[in-house]
Structures are given as structure tokens and as C-alpha cells.
Amino acid sequence: MYSPLIDELMQAFRVLPGVGPKSAQRMAFHLLERDKEGATKLAQALTDAVEGVGRCDCCQTLTEQSLCRICANPRRDSSVVCVVENPSDIIIFEQSGAYQGFYFVLHGHLSPIDGIGPSDLGLDLLESRFSGGDIKEVVLATNSTVEGEATAHYISEIAKSHNILVSKLAQGVPLGGELEYLDGGTLAHAISSRTRVE
Amino acid sequence: MYSPLIDELMQAFRVLPGVGPKSAQRMAFHLLERDKEGATKLAQALTDAVEGVGRCDCCQTLTEQSLCRICANPRRDSSVVCVVENPSDIIIFEQSGAYQGFYFVLHGHLSPIDGIGPSDLGLDLLESRFSGGDIKEVVLATNSTVEGEATAHYISEIAKSHNILVSKLAQGVPLGGELEYLDGGTLAHAISSRTRVE
Ligand SMILES: [Zn+2]
Ligand SMILES: [Zn+2]
Fold this sequence. Notes:
2 copies of one chain form a homodimer.
Chain A: H1 4-13, H2 21-34, H3 36-52, E1 54-55, E2 62-63, E3 77-84, H4 87-96, E4 101-105, H5 123-131, E5 137-140, H6 146-161, E6 165-168, H7 184-192, E7 195-196
Parallel strand pairs in A: 3-4, 3-5, 5-6
Antiparallel strand pairs in A: 1-2, 6-7
The site of one zinc ion has 8 residues of chain A, from loops.
């Protein structure tokens, strides 16, 4: 409908979550009509991030360092590791101010139907951290969905085999909800009253 | 909060219309976690479009050619020109199937308070097209906002001074609305019953 470069740009915007044909068109025209500088900066930021950002060697969160800021911080409590599904979950924990330990990011959950098994989530890396001896407690903070709970259960079995205390967030996390949408206050409460998994 | 490259990417997404901090975060993580290839394509499409897309020499719409597809089409009716505010308005006209003439894209409307005057909209170029002698009618299809109407009035005065018939879209265009949100059927009706501006 438009000239090829504009069509391609609109199509390219469709890779973004929540962006349909109408939004893609608005984005393309907005940038080409009013903010070519912003478009160039976005292109550069995308290229830099794609090339530079990988996963933390220790917790698997997204970072351009070999160790993320949290894993590289010697003042964190190395006796606790909190397991989350997504990098953005870490931010919610940090904003709550109620957690001083380390993290482990699964980038998803176990999903046999999609062929996602323990090694895809890096659970071998997590188990090697359990073997290290520093970790005394693992806080399971996967989403409270069926898949999230199943993943948490799987990890709790590994942790117990290493004699590591397993806990999960206290009630207060809405059932069926995703951590990302939780406010800091609710989460702070859920962290401080986390319950032990027997 | 995140590592610098991720922060920069999130910030860069904020140039897109309708994208707040939360959407920007979701976009950045989605691409970095699940679609680096899509991110690279988007970066390339942005770069190509920023470098390649300019304005049609004749109608000012966005295109990477010196003449857009419509202006370069000898089978269009060269006796009518339709004046619209945005390139995307052209698509709505084309989809309606009710218009065979040419277009002229203002990329906005007169807005003295923002320092946007006739030359910023390319009205000198439009007037030189009026002077060419081919154009017998101008269809004013600016948005039916105060600024859009004022712009239409200004253009109608120029057109009349060149003895060009001036028309506007018939009732059917919702008052206070923007053309972009109109369906093709309503627009087709409005085009076929357009009224002459005296
Ligand atoms: Zn880390
Ligand atoms: Zn053109």
C-alpha cells in the first residue's frame, strides 16, 4: 500500500508485543514525519542491545557484563537465592526493598508440550550453585500459574536434595496472576511472610 | 535499574507514540529474550526508512521515490486534487475506492501558535500546482477540527483565486473527529456527496 521501505518498517514494528497493523502504521508515520532522530536512536539502541546484551554467568538475567550488577555486588546476602521467571521480576523485588539476596532467572517455566525442559531453563547452572555450599535458602517466586507452580515444585526437589531450605512467597500474591503486575507493597509483605515448603 | 544498554533501549522505545515506561520495558525484554532477529530487522528497517524515505516532489507524501506511486500513475484523474493532513489519510481514500484523483499532503495544519504557517505546509508548492492549469477541482479533506477547518478555508481562498472549484467532503464525516478513524464505507459516501464551497 505504501512505498516498500515504509511497508517494511510497518511490518518490522509488528515484532513488538501488543503492536497490531494500526499501531505499526502510527509508529512508522510518527517517526518518519516527526522524529527521524528518535528513529535513528532507536535503531542504534536495538543494534547495540542485540549485540551487547547476553545473560549473566551466575543468575542468567539479561546484562552486557559477564556478571550482572546484583551478582557482582559483594554486599548482597549470598545465602539466599530467589528464582524468578523473568528479568523484569527482579526489578519488582528490588523496588520492594524487602530482599537482599541473589536471584536466578529461568526465562520461562517448564513446559513439556513446548519442549521446554530443565536444561532450557538453566537448572543445571542453578544446581551447580546449590552445590557450591553458600546457599542456605531458595525462595521460589515463579508465577502462580500451573506451569509456574510445577516449575517451582521441580526446583524444590533439587534444592531439598542439597539440604537447602525451600520457601515460597507468602499468600498475598494473587492466584493465577503474574508477578509483573504486582505492586511493591504487596510483594514486600509476601516476601516477609514467605512460607517454608515441606 | 537495568544494565546501560537495556536502559538505553527502553528509553529509545519511548519515542514511539503511546509507549510508556511499562510498554517500553516489555518491548525491550521481549526482543532481547525471544526475538533478537526481529530486533535486528527492526533496527535495519528504521535505518533504511530514515535514510531512504523523503517526500514526494508533487504531493509531499512520504516515499523513497521522487514521485510517489499515485503521482507517477498516468491513469489517475489529474483534474482533481484532494488535500489531506496526513499520509495515512491517503490510504483511507484509496481503500474507499471512491476517488481517482491526486492528493496533496500537508503534514499538519495551520497553527500560528506553534509557528506553523502556509510555507511549512508546502502551500507554495500546492499553489504552483494550481497555476499549472490541469487542476479543475480541489477537494478539501483536512480533519474537521478548528485548525483543520481554518486550514481548509485558507486553501479554498487560494484555489478560488485560481478559478478552481473547491469542494469538501459531505456530511458523514463525524464532527471533531479525525479522518484516520473513519471506515471506508462512510468515507465513500462522503466523497460521492461532497459539497461545493461557495
Ligand atoms: Zn546475575
Ligand atoms: Zn505524490
